Amino acid sequence: MVASSLTIIGLGYVGLPLAQEACNSGLAVTGFDVSAAVVDQLNAGSSHVDDLADGDVGAMLAAGFEATTDASCIRTSDTVVICVPTPLSDDGTPDLGAVESAARTAAENLNSGTLVVLESTTYPGTTGEFVRPILEEGSGLVAGEDFHLAYSPERIDPGNKHFGLRNTPKVVGGLTEQCTDVATEFYGQLVDRVVPTVGLREAELAKLLENTYRHVNIALMNEMAVFCHELGIDLWASIEAAKTKPFGFQAFYPGPGVGGHCIPIDPNYLSWVVRSLGHRFRFVELAQEVSERMPVYVAKRVQDALNRQQKAVNGSLIVLVGVSYKADISDVRETPARPLATQLQRMGADLRYLDPHVLEFQLSDGPVVALTLEDARLEEADLVVVLQPHTVVLDSGVLENAAAILDTSGSLDGQNVERL
Ligand SMILES: NC(=O)c1ccc[n+]([C@@H]2O[C@H](COP(=O)([O-])OP(=O)(O)OC[C@H]3O[C@@H](n4cnc5c(N)ncnc54)[C@H](O)[C@@H]3O)[C@@H](O)[C@H]2O)c1
User: What does the DSSP assignment read for 55-106?
Assistant: First the structure.
């Protein structure tokens, strides 16, 4: 089977790039989203995610793409891919509400022979034990017999200029061997390499393994950054030296804390499953604890840096540079800049931020004053704290005017720069 028509459920950071690649590959693509605002914006040719420009959405529309809040498009689709959010509930447990609702929508409109794929990041067992019964009950069809069911984790790295959907291998696991084959054939149209797994849960775990590995290694660097500073050792230089080893070492870097929709959230999906067995996933819990402390540690380093100038945080003009959760993107979900900014503001800092990607930066206490590259006047700041090294800021040369910089990103050096 070669899929010719596709419905993507959920048109966010994951669903939209997938829709773009499918349009490029000649598929008839419809995007279903519960948000009328998202649908209207896309149909008007405007993008709401970093990796696609308005022109990209325009090209998709010209290729026949349509966004809709009407789920009947599923009835005429050969393939349905679910890309909805998987956040945490208030008590820190998985919130599969959007997955459940998306699966119900798919079930109500499912036809025999359709391939249904879940891409949302989730714990092992979700596709087979949570999504499958919803699809079967709602459609009266049987997975693996009447329709195909698979899981394929999204590996999108927003802002990555080298690796996109097409040149990042795509892991695919099906409920049955035939489901895996059908899903492999589908993704083979969109990406250079498909990697089939032996089953659904192995594909689900692969994604959590990748994120947990990153989470733990970033936390390791964060913990080392704290004591290396006290020992007077330049950890950044040690990482550069260690990474010359051609085997057995992969470089990770410390920073102001972890953010985004993946690293601070996804490993909790895995530790939740482990807890259901009566065990604790101690590596994840420790990584969480270490990285969550980083904004507080950065605030302490801000205090120390000002102290050396015989100044207090209270009343000092402090500029945070790059408040998104990573460089070159606008996403502020779970950004460590938020707890840091809240703390500095509550300590009485005259706080500003400079981030051309983030037009508004809200804290629970109110907005932070925004500077632009044109009016930054960083020479007037008592301290500039670089959180994310956005290329546009580094290239502008604006940081050269700053008298004192605390660089948590390891991208700057010079007389006026102190690194984390
Ligand atoms: N953002 C990333 O970098 C990234 C990377 C890899 C994996 N993921 C995973 O992919 C999944 C989607 O993440 P995202 O960042 O694209 O989310 P997002 O918030 O950017 O977009 C999700 C979209 O789904 C829509 N939606 C919510 N419930 C819906 C429903 N019941 N039916 C239809 N549409 C619905 C929302 O309106 C929104 O437009 C999550 O599980 C996430 O963990 C995200």
Answer: HHHHHHHHTT-EEES-GGGGGG-SEEEE-----B-TTSSB--HHHHHHHHHH
